[in-house]
Structures are given as structure tokens and as C-alpha cells.
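Example complex used in Figure S2.
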Amino acid sequence: MSRVSNRDRILEAGLQVVHEHGYANASVRDIVAAAGVPQGSFTNHFASKEAFGLEIIDHYLAATRDVLEKTLLDETRQPLQRLEACIDTGRDLLNADCMRRGCMLGNFTAEASAESEQMRNKLLSVFDEIEAAYAHCLRAAVQAGEVPADLDVKETAALIVQSLQGANLLAKAHRDPTPVDRFKKTLFEKILK
Amino acid sequence: MSRVSNRDRILEAGLQVVHEHGYANASVRDIVAAAGVPQGSFTNHFASKEAFGLEIIDHYLAATRDVLEKTLLDETRQPLQRLEACIDTGRDLLNADCMRRGCMLGNFTAEASAESEQMRNKLLSVFDEIEAAYAHCLRAAVQAGEVPADLDVKETAALIVQSLQGANLLAKAHRDPTPVDRFKKTLFEKILK
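Predicted assembly (386 residues):
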């Protein structure tokens, strides 16, 4: 039988606390309470709150990778179908609580990237990885003739990632996924034409 | 001679502290230290940190309104010139520190809109006001024949506001204004065509 370690409990429960309340708002006390472990456990397993923050970004990235693999990188589907599926899946996941928490990567960027250089570099590498998946899918769309042959794939991938972050942010304020659908419509009807 | 009150000092210095370090990260102690006033001054003038947060959003809005009036709402210039001037001015203001602090409205949305319903409603009303200024300018662009007559002015204004938020967020992570310029190029070359 597998045994969930206190470390894993802290990471899993801690990610939820941080995603819900924000990184700065989430105290170590809140995190250990949510994990149901003694307070000393946190300092046993993490050198600092920053070290913990970097690890939960990795945890969040693992879930994001799973979405990318099932959508943008799924070679069995047509490229633009994959692109639409990726945007829809991301929206539906965040919409489980009416967009209330928003994208954790965007939240971290807003509140922690100016304070911690390690955090900022971690976020940049995550955004780069997501952009690369969009670029891969757009390259396939060019090859399949689904988008113009002269589409700047790298620039368009970067535009999608940044625009979805903005859509998620306004969706969080409105508690409504309309901004994501608005961007998707513009992307398919104008930007990829 | 005009006399700066402790209340004004707290608002002015506090806005800088919050914009630089984030709302949750900025303690009342940091704010009064930056303002050079006794700690008791804060509680004399603000019922809570939330009440203070709502007021600094109003202060930030006043500066934003000034930009909107000098750009989007400046009837002496052609509409698309005004639109470009607005995006450039916003970028240059945030780029004074290499985009490091980001847009305070976006930062507040990311870290405080899920925690405070009053804050969320305040941010929504600010975003609405900014959107209305973009819509006003786009309507003028339609009338001047600078953009297609069937452009959905309200939807496009909402798209601009959300996409600039995302551009500012990625620019903050990269400490580089390229994401803003990337969106501007797409806006003028594709979305408004």
C-alpha cells in the first residue's frame, strides 16, 4: 500500500490553499492546518516558504502538462481542433469555481515575481514550456494548411499565452468565463486568418 | 500654503508600497514607515486595510483617467492615433521600472478580488470605465472610417482591456515591454482590419 507522506500532504493541500487565497495570504499555519500535519512538518520538509512556493508551481505545471499532452500535443487530432480543445479545457478547469481562483501561474506572476528572482525564473520557464506546446500545434496547423503559411508561429504562440492570462484575470474579476471565449473567437476569426 | 495631511501621505506612499510589493505583502508597518507618520495615524484615518486598499485603487484610477483623457478621449486627434497613444503611454509608464511592478489593477485582481467582494466590485467598476473609454474611441474610429463599419465596438474594447492586462502580466514576468508591443501589432494589423 502506498503511504502519503506529510511532505506530499503539505504540497497537495498547500497548493489548494495558495490557489484559493494567494501566496502571500497563505500562512504556513493555514497550510499545515489544511494538510492535517503538525506545524513542525513544514520546516522539516521545506527550507523556506519560497522553496515550498517553487515546488507547488512544479505541481501545478504537472497538471498543466497533462492538459497540453491531451490537447495541443495529441497528434491524433487536427491541429486547430487541438488548439480549441486546449483553450476549452483550461477554461472548464478554472470555471469549476466560476473562475474565482484564476490561473495560479498568473496569480504568482502578479504577486510574487517582483519579490523573488527564483520565482520569476521558474514562472518564465513554465510560460516558455506552455508557449512551446502552442508553437508546436501551430506549426502543425501551418503544415496541414489550416492557417496561413506565413503565420509567425512563435509570436502567435506567445500572444496566445499572454492573452489567455489576461482573459483569465478579467474572468476572475467577473467570475465568468466570457473573456476566455471572447479571446478564442478573436483568435479563430481574426488572428489565425 | 497647502499642508499635506498624514492621510494624504499614507495614501501616496502606501500606493507606492502596495504597487511595488503587492497588497498582501504590504504591512501597515511598511506603509506608515514609507509615509513617515506614526503607526496610529493609519488606524485614525482608515477603518481597515481593505478601506485603505479601496482608496488607493481610486488614487490609481485618477492617474489612469488622466491618461485616458489625454489619449483615447482627446477629440483633437484621429481615433486610431489616440488608441495607439493610449497603449504606448500605458506601456511607457509601467516601463519606468522595466515593467517590474506591473499594472496595479491587475495585481489587485490577481491577489485580492477573490478575498474581498468590495475590492472585486471596485475593480470591476474601474475596468468598466476604462472599457468605456476604449469603446468611445473605437466608435469614433468607425465613424471616421478608420476601422470596418461592422466592428463590434463593445466587444473589441473589452478584448483590448483584457489583452493588455495579460500583456502587462507577461511583461512583468519578463521585465520587458515586448508583450505589449506584440498585442498592439496584432490589434492594428489583424483585429481592427
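Chain A has a mean pLDDT of 96. Residues 149 and 177 of chain A are 31 Å apart (CA to CA).
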